[in-house]
Design a protein that fits this description.
mainly alpha, 3 domains, three-stranded antiparallel β-sheet, two-stranded antiparallel ribbon, 9 helices
Length: 260
């Protein structure tokens, strides 16, 4: 069996994994948007930057902010973005959203002109606001979301948010691996490579090797059967030896990756 092509595209795994904790995120937002201190912070932000954003467009509205000039971009990045980042860090949210907004409870999304906005209480890791740490993680191949994975060939890189309960982490891992495994099998099929089979029992490998080595030493099949399977009938033991010899032959003369 040939290995899968390693020059295949990188597949990002978006399987709505945040649904594992969507109720948690939804409740977090519903309580946060009722918090009087959050409401005051948001009102102060709007008082300072609201007129500019109403004229130019909000950062999460792709349709409106796509008309920004270089000067608009520079003003946003130097004046508005730091204020957004500070409030996001203070309230541990991923985006600064009006407390008047509700989100779809099933999906954790809100429709806006030109797209969707995700519920902001999907808490990102603390390094989100530390560019040096973020750059290091990106250089190592991570994505920086802690709820997304990517696959390249037979290798999967997944991130986990250790703030999650173990039960949710295990469910997330199960979904990532199941999704990646199924797509890897499809990739093997497209590349005309043998589809993955289930793992053999390791004790069978020991028997394969023992039978093969005895045959290589010149032992006959009946002699091997008597030595390896003394508790079976002669006929059954001989058949077992032949089966193990065939399996051993495929592995010895085949490809090492067949052993899984």
């Amino acid at each position: 069996m040939k290995p899968a092509h390693q020059d295949s595209h990188v597949e990002f795994i978006h399987a709505d994994f945040h649904r594992i904790r969507i109720d948690v995120h939804w409740y977090r937002w519903e309580f946060l948007r009722r918090n009087p201190h959050y409401r005051v912070d948001y009102e102060e932000f709007v008082e300072k930057f609201g007129k500019w954003l109403s004229r130019k467009g909000y950062w999460y509205d792709d349709v409106r902010y796509s008309t920004w000039t270089e000067g608009d971009e520079r003003y946003f990045k130097t004046k508005i973005l730091p204020a957004i980042g500070a409030l996001c860090e203070k309230w541990q949210i991923t985006n600064l959203i009006s407390p008047s907004w509700g989100f779809d409870r099933r999906r954790g999304l809100r429709r806006i002109p030109g797209g969707m906005v995700e519920i902001p209480t999907i808490v990102a890791p603390g390094w989100k606001w530390d560019p040096s740490v973020f750059r290091t993680l990106v250089r190592l191949g991570f994505l920086g979301t802690a709820d997304l994975a990517k696959r390249h060939g037979n290798v999967v890189l997944a991130e986990f948010d250790l703030n999650w309960p173990m039960k949710d982490l295990l469910e997330y891992a199960k979904r990532v691996l199941s999704y990646a495994y199924e797509n890897y099998k499809k990739e093997l099929g497209r590349n005309k490579v043998d589809v993955l089979r289930g793992r053999r029992r390791l004790r069978d490998y020991d028997t394969h090797l023992r039978v093969w080595d005895l045959k290589a030493k010149g032992k006959s099949v009946p002699e091997i059967a008597k030595a390896v399977f003394p508790l079976y009938s002669s006929r059954s033991a001989v058949q077992r030896v032949r089966d193990h010899l065939r399996a051993a032959n495929r592995l010895v003369l085949g490809h090492p990756t067949d052993i899984r």
